[in-house]
Amino acid sequence: MIRDPLVSAIIPTYNRASFISDAVDSVLKQTYANVEVIVVDDGSTDATLEQLTKYGSRIRVVTQDNRGPAGARNRGIAMSSGELIAFLDSDDLWLPSKIDRQVALLQRVGQSVPCCLCNITMRWRNKEFTSFEVAWLNPPLEEGLWLNVDDVLATRFVLFNQGIIVRRPVLERLGGFDESIRFLEDYDLPLRLSLEGPWSFIREPLVVWRESATNSVYKDTQREDICTKECMVQVFEKHIANMRDRYHHGISQDYVSRELKRARRKLRAAKMSRLSSWGASTLGNSLQKIEQYRSAAFRRSPWFPKMTVSGSINHNGF
Description:
This protein has a domain at 219-299. By secondary structure, the chain is α/β, with parallel strands linked by helices. The chain has helices at 20-28, 48-52, 68-79, 98-109, 131-134, 149-153, 168-174, 185-194, 217-223, 225-245, 251-273, 278-299; strands at residues 7-13, 35-41, 60-63, 84-87, 93-94, 115-123, 128-130, 143-146, 164-167, 199-210, 309-310.
């Protein structure tokens, strides 16, 4: 990697006139200088584009008909030139040292490490957690290598888009985000990326995720519960096929098989709970409760994968 590689910061946006300036400003305030900012407006009908005109040549703005967040990010990737690519949702924020620290860490760990994920502060109106806490990640080191990404991601979602920086060749080889998935495209790509080897990580939160009062994909997934569960089944079916194609055997494939079965049970239970028959809907609700208890029990079991990390890579001197 060159000494100060160009980083492409890609911001997909849709009707975020009230938030987009905060997001763009947080990228322009990065302590790392070699950053290009690409905002992809995904068919906004509010004043988002008007807000972006004030930045002039400091950013590139691309407009397109609405294709969803996966399509917007892929358009940004195609328009970008950076050796490293990072993403920021348009209602969230990067802290000033985010890119600087991630680039420095990737420089130290070497080209074999495909990406770097930092922790994220998740800020709701009445509570605050970090993404590592929510995903039951507890690395004993401030930064280093995450060795068992495939095992961990097979068993739970880890907030990804806002905190990741990825090497372009890896992202291009994986084909970017899957636009055929309505929800959870930000789970599908990390699963595929987990098969590329250990990731580097930074335990300190360098991003702020904000609960949006307006429309958001996060809220859509809550409202469209059955569709989200269908996407989860689709993601796991696709992932286990990828693992078999790549002859990827071991415990992580067992985890994926288990989670696929659980996703199918949850989907059946959700569909049953929506039936007009009182008995069927009651049974469906009961089955959903059982799945919640099963998940809680698994998280407390010795089989639940903990984050395994390393602070040294001999041949790279990290």
